[in-house]
Amino acid sequence: MSELHLMNQRYLKYIVYLLAIYVLGWGFTDYREIFLGLITGTCFSLFNLWTMVRKQKQFEKAYQEGKSIRSMGMLSRMAAAGLAVLIAMRYPEYINLISVVIGLMTIYVVIMIDFLIQHIRD
């Protein structure tokens, strides 16, 4: 299995655990708007991770074949983040906007923490 695939599996596992904690927080606390914002942002963050990994695989394949690739998908990731913010702005009574933004950044925090853990192990 490639290193990229293993990293993607670890990130997915961490994000699913975080989402489970957020769902429990949404279900059992009075901070429903905040946890729903975290859930929304983290789901879009997970989509952005999937897009990034898919584009990285396409880039590797194109590089091995000597071809070029148009982009790494930054526009689609930005559009997904914009959609998450628009959803939060459309339903402010249910979804906290700041929590959505924090949720969107979740994958990057997970990547940094995983990097530190792997660096310490090696």
UniProtKB/TrEMBL annotation:
The keyword Cell membrane applies. Keywords: Cell membrane, Membrane, Transmembrane, Transmembrane helix. It is a multi-pass membrane protein. This is ATP synthase subunit I. It is found in: Cell membrane. InterPro entries: ATP_synth_I (IPR005598), ATP_synth_I_Bacilli (IPR039072). The keyword Transmembrane applies. Pfam families: ATP-synt_I. The chain crosses the membrane at residues 12-28, 34-53, 74-91, 97-117. Its main location: membrane.
